Amino acid sequence: MNTNSTSTSVTAGQDVILAARDVTKYYEGKDQRILVLDSISLELHSGEFVALLGPSGSGKSTLLRTLAGLVRPSSGDVFVHGQSLDGPNAQVAIVFQSFALYPWLTVLDNVELGLLAKELPRQERRRRALAAIDLIGLDGFEDAYPKELSGGMKQRVGFARALVVEPEALFMDEPFSALDVLTAQNLREQLLDLWTEQSMPTRAILMVTHNIDEAVSLADRLVVLAADPGRIRADIPGLPIDLRRRKGAEHTELVDALYRLMTSPQARVEDILPTAQPGRAPAIQRPYQVLPHVAIGDLTGLVGHLAQAGGRQDLYVLARNLQLELDDLLPLVEGVAILGLAVAEEGDAVLTDFGRRFADADVLEEKELFREQALDNVELIHQIFGKLQVSPDHSFHEDDLLEQLQENFSDAEARRQLDTAIDWGRYAELFAYDDDAGTLYFETEDVSHDP
Q1: Which of the four CATH numbers 1.25.40.10, 1.10.10.10, 3.40.50.300, 1.10.510.10 does domain 286-360 have?
Q2: Is pTM beyond 0.85 here?
């Protein structure tokens, strides 16, 4: 696979606009520190478009906000042209997922807002705002209000407002995820045109995305983060610009490789992507199994879909067929893997023999098979069931488990872990749950059985 991008190959000799050096970020939990970013070192050079990829929990947006000076690192430093950053980065403008337009202001007034902090004559502000509106393709809508605009047009206003300040670096945080497919594709193509033609008043772009195809189509460098905590797993050169636009075999091959990388957290990066520079930080082994937050219907639906596809499907194709983004697909694949129903193998989702039995089962047998797998493979469900068996009245309050989970997770994540285990366990008919009382219990007195 040829992944030697022209843009990437010249960055080594170009200016380092900003850099993170051993940036670590944690938040104080109840009795612990919740580590979000772990020793991140990253440079953004003049002339490059960098995409940050990673599963949910990898700290992509936190890293972007840290580089923008909106979040202060717990340790480590951010440098702008070699100078330590203290406060918001004046060289950066950000386009967010939400449009964040003021509904009582016109398009022109919304764009001009970005210049109010600068000591510019009103006429100069107006000239620059009109130029940004024209650049981004909104000429003719200067006097329109946000309620008159489509989602794509609103996001164009967001781009114009960011570009009007002529930032040295443009940051984008999931800028296309709130748009419909066709609108997003159109905006991506226009953004790439503006960037490659050097029409934009910015020297570098950093984009956070959970869309692998989007990242490969736009960026000349891809930085992949691992999760829990966020750390750089790989730094990969993107495709040459003509291959990004063409979306041929090389494009598909790189997308497939990235899916394979992200669904194989223990694999060696260089075995999947020989051109990648592996990250320095080793994988973190949690003392507790982490459950993905996916609904039972989605898990069983994925198994059924794979069965109809012959028991195996490319993850890229699977995501496209089910219209799932990376942050939706990875938890599903992880969920069926934990339950022993399917595995991620060479960039494909593959049903196990047990998964095939599950797909062919009727409703009652499906429940029995799920019960067996949940009890055998999900540590928290096994723990709940065992605790109920030894309890004198075969019940206990959820707080007993929450306190234990909070030793390994934040309070919010501990709650989500327990809720997922409860949903899976109830579906398996292993136990019942009283939401009002917060009590887990056996529904019958026949509690000595082994499901």
Answers
A1: 1.10.10.10
A2: no
